[in-house]
What we know:
The structure holds three protein chains of three kinds. By secondary structure, chain A is of the alpha/beta class. Chain A has nine helices and 17 strands. In chain A, helix 3 (about 75-90) crosses helix 5 (about 105-110). Chain C is of the alpha/beta class. Chain C has helices at about 35-55, 70-80, 95-110, 130-135, 195-200, 215-220, 245-260; strands at about 1-5, 10-15, 30-35, 55-65, 80-85, 115-120, 140-150, 155-160, 165-175, 175-180, 205, 225-230, 240.
Amino acid sequence: MSAGDVLVVAETRRGELREVSRELIGAGLAIKAASGGRLVVAVLDHEPGRFVQSLSVDGVDELLLVPTPNEHFEAHVSQRALEELIDAEQAGLVVLAYTIDSLGFGPAVAAARRLGFASDVTSLTWADGPAVTRGAYGDKLVAELEFPGKDCTLVMLRAGTFEPAPEGSQATATRTVELALDGVAETEHLGFEEVADTGVDITKAPFLLSIGRGVEDKDDVPRFEALAERFGATLSVSRPLVDAGWMPSARQVGQSGKTVKPRVYLAFGISGAVQHLAGMRTAETIIAVNTDPEAPIFGVAHYGAVADLFEVADELEQALE
Amino acid sequence: MPRDPKYDILFEPIQLGPKTLKNRFYQVPHCIGAGSEKPGMQAYHRGMKAEGGWGACCTEYCSIHPESDDTSRVSARIWDEGDVRNLAAMCDRLHQFGALAGIELWYGGPHAPCMETRATPRGPSQIASDFELNIFPRYMDQDDIDTVQQMYVDAAIRAREAGFDIIYVYGAHAYLPFQFLSPFYNRRTDKYGGSFENRARFWRESLEKVREAVGDDCAIASRFAVDHLLGPISIQVGEDGARFVEYCDDLVDLWDFTVGDIAEWGQNAGPSRFFEENHEKPYTGQIKAGNHTNKPVVGVGRITNPDTMVAIISSGQFDIIGAARPSISDPFLPQKIDEGRLDDIRECIGCNQCISRWEIGGPPMVCTQNATAGEEYRRGWHPEKFHPAANREKSVLVVGAGPAGMECAMVLGKREMSAVHLVDASKEIGGCVNWISQLGHSDGKDNLFRGSARGLGEWKRIVNYRQIQLDKLSNVEVHPGSRLSAAEVLEYGAEIVIIATGCHFATDGMNAATHTPIEGADTSLDWQLTPDEVVGETKRVGQRVLVLENEGYFMGASVAQKLAGEGHAVTLVTQAAEIAHYMDYTLEAPMLHRDLERLGVGIHTYTMLEKIEPGVCHGYDVWNPAHKEQFEVDTVVLCTARISDDALYRELKADKGRLEAEGIEGLYVIGDASAPRMIVDSIFDGHRLAREIDSPHPEMPLPFIRERRLWGDSTNEDFRAQLLNTVDVV
Amino acid sequence: MKIVVPVKQVAALDDEFELLDDGSGVDPDFLELDLNEWDAFSLEAALQLREATGDGEVVVVTVGDDDADEALRGCLARGADRALRIWDESLDGADPLAVARVLAAGVERERPDLVLCGVQSSDAVNGATGVALAGYLQMPHVAVVKQLDFDVAQSAATVKRELEGGLVEVLRVRTPALLTIQTGINEPRYANLRAIKQAREKPLEVSSPGELGLDADLVAAAAGSRRRELKHPERGEGAEMIDGSPSEVAARIVEIVRERMSG
């Protein structure tokens, strides 16, 4: 392997390939196209063979199947496995997802092997070496990073940064890599728990559907509640609806309500008063629907539509059926 | 921080006749309890707004003659040279800060009972006032009309002498000129009655004469209720309203539009409980929209939000943003917008406490959000300036983050105390405001008349503002979710301890009327509730509910509204002549009564309970206790009295030796924990203690200036000398 | 028992802020400094463990300039026993790996039973320093812990890892170990005025990498990245507008949402 070679580490959980793995492959393909190197995808799993089909993507040169002794993810095992792969494959760029599991071992690998390192990366390109940007001060600013003197850089890529690579037309070449991983685990898996929902905390919701003054009638609130549920979102509101008593203040986003930073903030009929923006402007993706093209919320939104919110809501209801 | 360019439109000057208004922030005429006889209060209260950037500030209604006397309500007066001298103080102070001074020349007719002057008011027809009790005007013949018009002229000339820039002929709120215009008052058959031109004649002539006298030097304004809200029997915007504007457009330099009258003034000075921001738009907005005027227009509607202000001007609804209450709540609103400090704006909550004092007749103004309103002169308090406390090296613990505690901690923080810790047992600060602001709704349906119950949500701004200010103060830490015992307070390490732990509702029916508990009253039982339990929905409420209210403000009635709105059969009982009497003063009563009537709430006045049993309450007529009445109900809500939660204070106070040993030099109690009161007074209490924390005996309020006649000669200094503390008002 | 709690003084941007002319950073006048929110939780976890076992020492460590003393005093006021601050100019702008390398030197000499870090800092949001530190210390580690039960006698901890989508994994790890602690694991206490005053007398040691036996080249080599430039995000003219009929708008919204919510 050489400087332009990319090693992608796929993620699995409870026997399923995690969606983000295909995004990592998409990233790898993009880098490969620019660097002219090889793209190798590693899967560390108790039965790595079961993922060959879903990881077979056109453009991937090789799939490394690394069997692990533990049934579930174990940080120290993954750490040792990746360290050995890095030593063996000598890739210039190692790509992990910025996820809970990867956070558990990626930085330790980078430390142990003195790699270049960047976390929560929001753009990744190749210019005679990896070129990376990430957020600074919670995404209010953007930082460009460089990795002087590093032969190998490990990046942890934020979900949604790349398109997932489509399933390939044929099976990719595979190689099983047997590593000495027995006795490496330092933790013992005792089980999983599903956590029940114990009441609304909009600050923890990853997807908020938020309504404001544009929803002029209290009687229209339930349909947005239903839409939110259908969409997999939590309903939140701007202050006027709380002032009017239509919703409890626990749902209020804004300076005098809660500050939220969801992945997606979908705002219907919210004009974007300063006090409201203060509560949601650092959301990762803001989509605003408002009839007023001058509405201040369009200044902070990533996507906007000047449209009638009820008509759009109607269409969404149909689309989500 | 620079001004956001989208607010530039609010800072564009506009010409009013011979005068230039420097921006679009205009304090419309409003009462403060100062008049011409408290010139210090008048000048300094208005001056504070000018300092804060308002382009023009007006007096309250200003009587042009002793025949227009509203005692005990306080109006200004411009009867003689003494009044000129006193009101000139206001003009000078406004001019000092670059604002125009406006005076609203007022003749009340039968609405002014003349209880001080004992004069006889005149009116267009002899119909008794629909606002005052038993006051009849003398019918005006041509001589009377000439005489009264001359009163306007003479008053205008005195006004110019005092330094006023804008002179109103005031007809809104159904005062004299409007009484001529409206067939509701005017049944004349001469040239001043009947047709539109005849009815408009008095007002038009008055404007002409005033304009001729002072129009070259001063801007002539008129305050006009474009719609009386009484239908065809009076002025409607779509008929005589717009027509009158067109008819007199040539005579004014500024129109100031309102709706309604003084009999139901709450339709104009709409409380937030029933009216949203910019609520007059459907009426006052029609004038410019229909191209009925070529002159600048100022209008109101409890407009508090800068973005609403921009929209109003951009859309052409008004040219100038008029405000009374928002200017009381935050005299520095224009400056804060100019400086990009929007989150420092202290928004009016529409509680109408300011108005209530005028309605009561006599007391000075107050403001829930702004404890310095009315105190600018007599205590030297400035809403934005707080000189550092002389004992600021001390640290302070404030226990309880309700209205009093939050205000106290905030002001102590602004006075640079070395460390202020504000602690509250609850996870959210705000105290009683958090649950009270959830009241005020009924069933969400419209009332037959304007003003549907939209709730007290805006009262939450009390908390919002203080939360933001407390966050900004680096010497203040706020710790919610922490209930302190007396031991923890003693060990806390503060030299000054302030207890602001609020109050609770009496559980046994104790009340101000009988001074005894009610037999069988016990809110520990699951079918008897206190108001906070109703809001907290901690107990089941049966279908038939009796609410007993002895306090006389909003609590009992609001609980009745909520439960009736949710479908319960509610009976509301009070020993007083009417329910929620104080709401007459806050102008909320008419809409409240309409709502309760529509909801079918059974109201029983002059009634008290003597016994409560499961399923039945035993009442009696207070005038004839032998006359009994049984109320069969499932649930009883007792709003009879509140009791201070002062156990912590008493426990700490009892052991002076221990306080000393722990280095606690001052122990104080404020707000409801001291004595239950209205929120406006709790906030004041906390504010005052913080302002005077470095006086020799902070628990005792320092003297304030009383503007009264001193025997012999007196100077302004004689009055100033009454203040012992350092003033923050220059 | 000894618990080391690495902490960070983080910077929050004022609403109106300015970048330095050379793009190297934010003008410090516009930064508000505070203890990292996550560290309040990890410190609280440490204090609760000390109280549960009846004895023990909680030591807070930070890599930062003297502005960070305020955060350390705050930790001492809440109950930490000792504080250590490590700094020299070469650490300005250090990345997580360099910070972890330096922290490792400070932590090692304490020989802790537990090292509790916050999952991430609110300003840099790398989420990496804790696990990198574990890498340097060669210590067993678990990241994103939302519940912790420490069995002193067994020298082991049962922890719950917070995974995506509300899933939780229960694990057991032997100590000494390093855990990164998630917010919400406990209710951090606050310091009363007495404790704040008394904290002024507690030991706060200031050291440097050199004094801890790290030579400058070693630290420089450990760095994983260097920031070339800091700039405003490209916003273009505001939002990317979605045109078309309501059904087209709705379709695009669904597409965007699905894209963003995946993974």
